[in-house]
Specification:
2 domains; 34% helix; 30% strand; seven-stranded mixed sheet; globular
């Protein structure tokens, strides 16, 4: 159970709301599956997915905002087996990529299926609590594993809290080694763009990265195929490098109707196909633009 305490405020008095876990493991699973995109930024694919001939069952299968496969495992209370079990399923999934891609195609279409990014498949473990040994073990593994505590309050409040979030994830080479015919040394499109960027632009990227990660202890960066994704539970900023224009493009989850739209600085991306998540694009061309963008970056972080 989370050590976070919630209180109901009645005038000048407060009353603690007692937290509890779900009556059954399946109860929290159903709740998350019905709201996976809103809660976790994960599009639902399938529940109780068969994994192997030994009778293994993946609780929830999905695909995240950055097109990465996601396995979600649940336990009512603290249970160290959830991590080892999830890792076993993650390894199984890497050996059965075609079946996953087919499921994505049938649910979300060919374009989404062809864009699945296998370099950083994720494991989300959701339980009533995790021990220090659990978080220490996951930290040492260096895999894309999030440990998420949950608690229910009364009949209408659900708390999700990151007990451990994978920080800077870069497993492209390791994933390529597990992919038949893949070249572990082949650079991603993002890495090629970084190689073409000017020294000035790389310094600006470093400053932007530090600024985004400084928004909170739970902010983490993931390198995906075409951009850097910055997330808490869900993405709050996606950063693309554009060497030809010598600028960075940041898309954030801020309603364009509530933000200043200025030529050369920001743009409404609704209805315009683009890489990454978020409806507002911000163009970072220099230190002044980065400073000007800070309130918008903070708003997106707070909303994610």
């Amino acid at each position: 159970m989370s050590d976070m305490k919630l209180f109901r405020v009645e005038g000048r008095a407060v009353a603690e709301m007692p937290g509890r876990t779900a009556g059954l493991e399946r109860d929290i699973q159903r709740l998350v599956e019905a709201n996976s995109e809103e809660l976790l930024g994960v599009r639902f694919l399938e529940s109780e997915y068969p994994a192997g001939q030994d009778g293994g069952i993946i609780d929830t299968l999905g695909i995240d905002e950055n097109h990465r496969p996601v396995i979600i495992e649940y336990k009512r209370r603290s249970n160290p087996n959830i991590i080892n079990q999830g890792l076993s399923y993650l390894n199984w999934l890497m050996d059965h990529r075609s079946a996953f891609s087919l499921r994505v195609r049938d649910t979300y279409g060919r374009e989404v299926a062809e864009g699945v990014d296998w370099r950083n498949p994720r494991l989300l473990c959701i339980a009533g609590g995790f021990s220090k040994q659990d978080t220490d073990a996951v930290r040492q593994m260096g895999r894309a594993i999030d440990l998420i505590r949950y608690a229910l309050y009364d009949d209408d409040v659900l708390l999700l809290e990151l007990a451990h979030a994978a920080q800077i994830e870069r497993h492209a080479a390791a994933a390529a080694e597990r992919t038949p015919g893949a070249d572990p040394e082949a650079p991603s499109p993002l890495q090629r763009l970084r190689g073409q960027a000017s020294e000035r632009l790389l310094q600006l990227l470093q400053a932007l990265t530090e600024s985004l990660l400084a928004l909170g202890e739970d902010a983490r960066m993931t390198e995906v195929a075409n951009y850097y994704a910055f997330a808490r539970m869900k993405n709050f900023a996606c950063v693309r490098i554009t060497p030809l224009l010598d600028r960075l493009v940041v898309t954030v989850k801020v309603d364009p109707d509530t933000a200043p739209l200025e030529e050369g600085f920001s743009r409404d991306m609704r209805g315009i196909g683009h890489l990454g998540t978020g409806d507002l694009a911000i163009y970072i061309t220099d230190a002044d633009a980065l400073e000007k963008a800070q309130p918008l970056l903070a708003r997106s972080y707070e909303a994610s």
